[in-house]
Every structure is written in structure tokens, then in C-alpha cells.
């Protein structure tokens, strides 16, 4: 009976995985960061987004590799649990809170787009950004069953908006795009910086598919294959979008600007207004709601596992984790109060993730050695030396992104980033040394996850 339920639960096929992966990957990041990418590298943004998709696929390669060997019920959480040592388990726990910086980025981006239609908003940008963050956090108190429905609707609107942007825009691109200069406007370093900053928009191809591996038919084949196909599809779509974004107006006009300038040039006004409000603003708002909602259980689990003081486990009578959400809220408004740019906020969010990804990608070499049978049956199976090289390249990709995001910061921001990483490290060590977190329990949890994965039928 138990096995029957498992078989019935596996109802997602390759097409479902592609749809899920693409819907999760193509998002507000491209609306928010295209101007920054163009500022760094000019018209070669069309190449930067393609290479960026490859870089981010490599940076999250452990997701692809481990999905080809095991079927994890807990998705990315389970994958990290089996790769991390206790210290990095703590780092990973605290990284959840840096997601709060992305909330700030979304609120700023909403104002930047909405101000195109309502210019007076810019005069009160900080106040409105904090108000938006506050209202959305308040909305999570009661819980929102309709959020997933809204998210699906907004994803459809987003994809339609992107499609219309490409269709209307391609015919308006000025001739000589590939022959009249402004390629690699800041040299190779500018190109790499564009790849790093666009990494936010180019990531996400692995998370959705990995999360549903337990309910996917032939998951060890369809998850890795689906991720690879989604990456190619995303690169093509972003190539077309960046071609329009950098080709309709002079580079100087669109550098460090959002897509609204190009949209105003290619659309009739009524479509332009719909694109800004219905496409950009709503899409970014949905990403913001999702970002706030999705951390609820992970950060509560962080508290329950002992990585945070006991007070952080407090919830309301309905189960709302108000203490950890209060911390998350404070983290979210700090970048707004400090007046950080979108580039800086992306760096603050992505650098900790890239550091943990470096570790995960290198740890895959050890896992392949430890589970030779699973590696032998993997769709990615190849000579051992070759997969070791790929794992090292994957770690190197994450390192390159991490480094280039770091050097975009000024000295005070670098100190802030290093301070955040230092505090994460100190908190992790203290939690382990004081016994608040049980190493024995971490190891038991790792064994349970592995055993469930080994027993799972594909």
C-alpha cells in the first residue's frame, strides 16, 4: 500500500518540470537588473545573459548532480544537509536572513517602475519602500492561501509581458547592433561584472525542479534533463530581451535604467501603462510576496534546531513565528534606510549563497566516491576525472561570481559584507560549542535523509 502511494504521487513529467523551472527562473530579476548589466558591458549584454545562465547553472551544479543520483523529498534543503559539515550547516541557516535584503531590492524596484507613471513617488521613495515592506509583512500574519494562485496568475502575466516586449521590440532595434561598437564597453572586467550582476536574474533554474523531485516520474533522469533544457530556453529568452533592451535606444540612455524607457519607445501608451503596472510592478510585487512567504518555515526550523536564541521559537496562537519574522523585517528595511543601490543589494544577497555553493559543489566529489553505485546509474555518469573537473569548475564559477560581486562594493559596503559573514561564522561556532545545536542530531538527520533517498523508487 505504501509503495502504491509513492507511485501514484509521481505524476510530474519532463514537460511539467520544464514549465516549473522556466516559471521559477524567468522573473522580476530581468526587469530589475537589465540596466545595470548594460551599464557594465553595453551591447554585449546579449552575450552576458547567455554566459550568465551557464555560470549560474554551474554555480548550482550540485543541484543537478545530486538529483541525478538521489531522489530527495526535501529538495535543496536535503541536498545541503548531506553536503555540509556542522559549521557550514550553521552558515546556511543564517544565510536565510540575507534574503531580507532582496525584499529591499524588490520594494525599491517597484517604486522605480511605478514612478514612471506616477513621478511624485520618487520624492518619498524611502518612506514608500518601507511602507510596502511593512504592509506585505503584515499580510503574512494571517497567512494567505490565495498567494499561490496570485503567484501563478502573475507568472502568466509576466511571461506574456516578456513575450510582448520581445515581439514589439525586435522590429524597433536599430540596425548595426553587432557592428557599430558599444560591445564590451568596459572591457573584459565589465563583461564579467555584468555576468555576476545578472546572475540574480539567471539563477533559479534548479530550485523548482529539485523541490519536486519526489513526485516526478523518472526523477533521476527528468530533473537534470529538465534543468538543462530550462537553462537553454532561459538563455534564448534573455538574449532576445537584452537585444531589445540595448538595441532600441542609445546605450547612454538605457545604461543603469530599467526597461521602462525602452517599453515607452516601442509600445503604444496604453500598452506601455499595462506593461509597467501589470507586468513589471505586479511581477516584482509577486516575487516580493513569495520571498517573504517562502522563508517562514525555513527560518522557524533554524530557530528550532538551536541556531538562534530560544526566544526566536516563539509563535502566536496561530503558529506565526513573530520573533524571527521581526528580525527578517528589520534586515529587510536596513538597505532602504542606508540608501543602497540595486547592485549593492544583489551583492549582499548573492555572496553568502555563492560561498555555500562553492562548498556544496566541491563536496559532490566526496559524495560520488562514497556512493559509487548511485553515480554509476546517474544519467550524468562519465569518467571520474571529468566529473571531478566539472565540480571544480562549478565551484570556480560560484567563486568568480562571488568575487566580482564583492569588488562592486565600496569600502564601507565591503566591511559590512565581511562583518555579516564574520557574524554568521561566530554564531555558527558558538551554537555548536555551547551545545545549543547537537552535532549528533545533525549527523542523524543526514543519515535519515540519505537512507530515505536510497530507499526511494524512481
TrEMBL record:
<feature type="transmembrane region" description="Helical">
    <location>
        <begin position="344"/>
        <end position="364"/>
    </location>
</feature>
<feature type="transmembrane region" description="Helical">
    <location>
        <begin position="12"/>
        <end position="33"/>
    </location>
</feature>
<keyword id="KW-1133">Transmembrane helix</keyword>
<feature type="transmembrane region" description="Helical">
    <location>
        <begin position="153"/>
        <end position="171"/>
    </location>
</feature>
<keyword id="KW-1003">Cell membrane</keyword>
<dbReference type="InterPro" id="IPR050367">
    <property type="entry name" value="APC_superfamily"/>
</dbReference>
<protein>
    <submittedName>
        <fullName>Amino acid permease</fullName>
    </submittedName>
</protein>
<keyword id="KW-0472">Membrane</keyword>
<feature type="transmembrane region" description="Helical">
    <location>
        <begin position="227"/>
        <end position="249"/>
    </location>
</feature>
<feature type="transmembrane region" description="Helical">
    <location>
        <begin position="385"/>
        <end position="408"/>
    </location>
</feature>
<keyword id="KW-0812">Transmembrane</keyword>
<dbReference type="GO" id="GO:0005886">
    <property type="term" value="C:plasma membrane"/>
</dbReference>
<feature type="transmembrane region" description="Helical">
    <location>
        <begin position="320"/>
        <end position="338"/>
    </location>
</feature>
<feature type="transmembrane region" description="Helical">
    <location>
        <begin position="124"/>
        <end position="141"/>
    </location>
</feature>
<dbReference type="InterPro" id="IPR002293">
    <property type="entry name" value="AA/rel_permease1"/>
</dbReference>
<dbReference type="Pfam" id="PF13520">
    <property type="entry name" value="AA_permease_2"/>
</dbReference>
<feature type="transmembrane region" description="Helical">
    <location>
        <begin position="269"/>
        <end position="299"/>
    </location>
</feature>
<feature type="transmembrane region" description="Helical">
    <location>
        <begin position="191"/>
        <end position="215"/>
    </location>
</feature>
<feature type="transmembrane region" description="Helical">
    <location>
        <begin position="45"/>
        <end position="72"/>
    </location>
</feature>
<feature type="transmembrane region" description="Helical">
    <location>
        <begin position="93"/>
        <end position="118"/>
    </location>
</feature>
<feature type="transmembrane region" description="Helical">
    <location>
        <begin position="414"/>
        <end position="432"/>
    </location>
</feature>
<dbReference type="GO" id="GO:0022857">
    <property type="term" value="F:transmembrane transporter activity"/>
</dbReference>
Amino acid at each position: 500500500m505504501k509503495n502504491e502511494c509513492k507511485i501514484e504521487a509521481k505524476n510530474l513529467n519532463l514537460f511539467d518540470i520544464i514549465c516549473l523551472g522556466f516559471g521559477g527562473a524567468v522573473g522580476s530579476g530581468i526587469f530589475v537588473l537589465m540596466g545595470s548589466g548594460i551599464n557594465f558591458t553595453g551591447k554585449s549584454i546579449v552575450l552576458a545573459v547567455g554566459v550568465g545562465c551557464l555560470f549560474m547553472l554551474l554555480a548550482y551544479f550540485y543541484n543537478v548532480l545530486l538529483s541525478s543520483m538521489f531522489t530527495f523529498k526535501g529538495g535543496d534543503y536535503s541536498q545541503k544537509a548531506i553536503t555540509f559539515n556542522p559549521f557550514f550547516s550553521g552558515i546556511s541557516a543564517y544565510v536565510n536572513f540575507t534574503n531580507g535584503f532582496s525584499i529591499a531590492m524588490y520594494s525599491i524596484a517597484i517604486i522605480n517602475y511605478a514612478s514612471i507613471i506616477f513621478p511624485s513617488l520618487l520624492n518619498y521613495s524611502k518612506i514608500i519602500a518601507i511602507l510596502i515592506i511593512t504592509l506585505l509583512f503584515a499580510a503574512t500574519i494571517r497567512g494567505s492561501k490565495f498567494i499561490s494562485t496570485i503567484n501563478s496568475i502573475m507568472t502568466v502575466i509576466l511571461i506574456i509581458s516578456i513575450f510582448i516586449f520581445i515581439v514589439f521590440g525586435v522590429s524597433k532595434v536599430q540596425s548595426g547592433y553587432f557592428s557599430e561598437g558599444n560591445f564590451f564597453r568596459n572591457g573584459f572586467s565589465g563583461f564579467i561584472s555584468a555576468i555576476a550582476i545578472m546572475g540574480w536574474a539567471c539563477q533559479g533554474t534548479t530550485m523548482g525542479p529539485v523541490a519536486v523531485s519526489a513526485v516526478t516520474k523518472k526523477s533521476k533522469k527528468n530533473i537534470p534533463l529538465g534543468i538543462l533544457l530550462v537553462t537553454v530556453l532561459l538563455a534564448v529568452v534573455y538574449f532576445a530581451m537584452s537585444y531589445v533592451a540595448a538595441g532600441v535606444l542609445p546605450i547612454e540612455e538605457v545604461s543603469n535604467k530599467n526597461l521602462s524607457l525602452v517599453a515607452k519607445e516601442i509600445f503604444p501608451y496604453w500598452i506601455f501603462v499595462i506593461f509597467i503596472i501589470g507586468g513589471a510592478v505586479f511581477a516584482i510585487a509577486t516575487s516580493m510576496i513569495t520571498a517573504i512567504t517562502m522563508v517562514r518555515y525555513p527560518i522557524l526550523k533554524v530557530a528550532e534546531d538551536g541556531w538562534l536564541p530560544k526566544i526566536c521559537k516563539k509563535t502566536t496562537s496561530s503558529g506565526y513565528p513573530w520573533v524571527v519574522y521581526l528580525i527578517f523585517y528589520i534586515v529587510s528595511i536596513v538597505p532602504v534606510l542606508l540608501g543602497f543601490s540595486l547592485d549593492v543589494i544583489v551583492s549582499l544577497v548573492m555572496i553568502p549563497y555563492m560561498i555555500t555553493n562553492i562548498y556544496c559543489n566541491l563536496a559532490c566529489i566526496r559524495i560520488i566516491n562514497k556512493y559509487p553505485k548511485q553515480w554509476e546509474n546517474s544519467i550524468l555518469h562519465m569518467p571520474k576525472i571529468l566529473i571531478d573537473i566539472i565540480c571544480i569548475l562549478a565551484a570556480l564559477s560560484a567563486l568568480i561570481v562571488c568575487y566580482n560581486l564583492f569588488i562592486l562594493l565600496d569600502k564601507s559596503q565591503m566591511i559590512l559584507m565581511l562583518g555579516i559573514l564574520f557574524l554568521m561564522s561566530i554564531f555558527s561556532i558558538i551554537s555548536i560549542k555551547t551545545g545549543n545545536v547537537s552535532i549528533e542530531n545533525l549527523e542523524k538527520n543526514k543519515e535519515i535523509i540519505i537512507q530515505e533517498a536510497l530507499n526511494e523508487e524512481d
